[in-house]
């Protein structure tokens, strides 16, 4: 398994644990609006990260084979984030756009935290 796939599996598991915590918060706290927004934002963020990983792998294969790749799919990732925002605007009594954006950024925060942990682990060796 290549390094990118190892990172993806690790990040995915961390985000799924966070989603489990969000679901518990949604079910057992009085902050349903916040946790539901975090759930939707994090799912869209996880989808965007998965899409980016797939496109980067496709780019790597194309470079090896000497072919061209049109894009890394920025438009589709932006459309997914916009869809989450549209849900928040359509159902403001159930969702908060601010917390959806926080959920969207969760994947990137997890990636940064994991990077620092892996860097420290490397330095200890």
UniProtKB/TrEMBL annotation:
It holds the Pfam family ATP-synt_I. Its main location: membrane. It comes from the Bacteria. It is a multi-pass membrane protein. Keywords: Cell membrane, Membrane, Transmembrane, Transmembrane helix. PANTHER family: ATP SYNTHASE PROTEIN I. This is ATP synthase protein I. The lineage of its organism: Bacteria, Bacillati, Bacillota, Bacilli, Bacillales.
